[in-house]
Design a protein that fits this description.
Elements (H helix, E strand, L loop, with lengths): L21 H13 L5 H14 L7 H17 L5 H12 L3 E4 L13 E4 L3
Parallel strand pairs: 1-2
Helix pairs in contact: 1-2, 3-4
InterPro entries: PIN-like_dom_sf (IPR029060), PIN_dom (IPR002716), Type_II_TA_system_RNase (IPR050556)
Cofactor: Mg(2+)
Keywords: Hydrolase, Magnesium, Metal-binding, Nuclease, Toxin-antitoxin system
Length: 121
Amino acid sequence: MRERPTGMNEYRPFSVLLLRSPKTVAELLTGVELADDARRPGRQAFVDEVLALIPLEECTTDVARVHARLMAHVRRTGKTRGAYDLMIAATAAATARVIITMDASAAFDDLPGVRAEVIPR
């Protein structure tokens, strides 16, 4: 099992595969806000590294089209998905990127056209 990364420098070789959407930024910042006083500085430092190293992807018409396709897919299959997860998935698929996540329950790679790697917690 891989060690949990201590910072974004460990992901630097893969930065072309990473993306940050407004939704991922919101989720990362929520983690900072929810952290206890002991963990907050470390989480904030990690988020600051992410924001400095990884480009922000805009929500384009292409992203909206992929989002609509994914939304139709989940409605047809009856599998509920979070709105943020679908937007993150749509952004990744529309920009040909891989989602890097610690949330295995999101099951991003079950979505058509979406690639994901789960990093152990």
